[in-house]
Design a protein that fits this description.
alpha+beta; L-fuculose-1-phosphate Aldolase; six-stranded mixed β-sheet; 10 helices; 17% strand; globular
Length: 257
Amino acid sequence: MDGSDALTELLPNRWDEAHAATLSPEALLLYRSNLLGSDKRVTNYGGGNTSSKLPMVDPLTGETVPVLWVKGSGGDIGSMKLDGFSTLYMDKLLAAQSLYRGPEHEDDMVALYPHLTFNLNPRATSIDTPLHGLIKHPHVDHVHPDAIIAIAAAADSEALTREIFAGSIGWVPWRRPGFELGVWLKRFVDANPEARGVVLTACSPGDRPRRSATTPPSAPSTAPPSGSPSGHAASPPSAARSWSRSRRSGAAPSPPA
């Protein structure tokens, strides 16, 4: 039994396959989100965000297009409803990468998000949206398990991540949420297709909703040290990917290789 199997035994599987089979894709995202957010071993109150990339019928053209459903600003994934998700055209979000002029212009990107909205959804888009949208995986969960935050908050979190996860989980320096972090994550995922995750602020993608919601945090969650922005953790999906972010005390952020 490896470490991942042991952790799986510590967190019982709460996923109800029979119930999940009755749900629409967007309701399945909500079910997954509520499961993760209501389990305080997986995420602190109010923390984290979840997403799925779903095919939807465009009300303008009648064509089926990929749409990012991602938790909007505010709220709690443990108790949120469907109206708590922002919806964005995936093609427009990906095209927005060509407009990005660097970290000093991140606020300009936030101002563009309303122009990417699908179906006139009024829910405000979270600053964490690029973490979900620029990663290729269709399901991404970003949560805050305390057990993993302890690793990310350590001064030697990079070395601890290597020691504990034996290379299956990568490590990226802390970066505040925003478009630049989304670019860093995309770069990491593209360069490390076999990695199960990376320590940063926390996402955990998978190829199926159940994989994201049922696997306990065997991949990192992250937390910056005391006094810095709140840290997060990733609850990784089995046989998929998960990511999270952290900052070492005194370490200046730098892009991942």
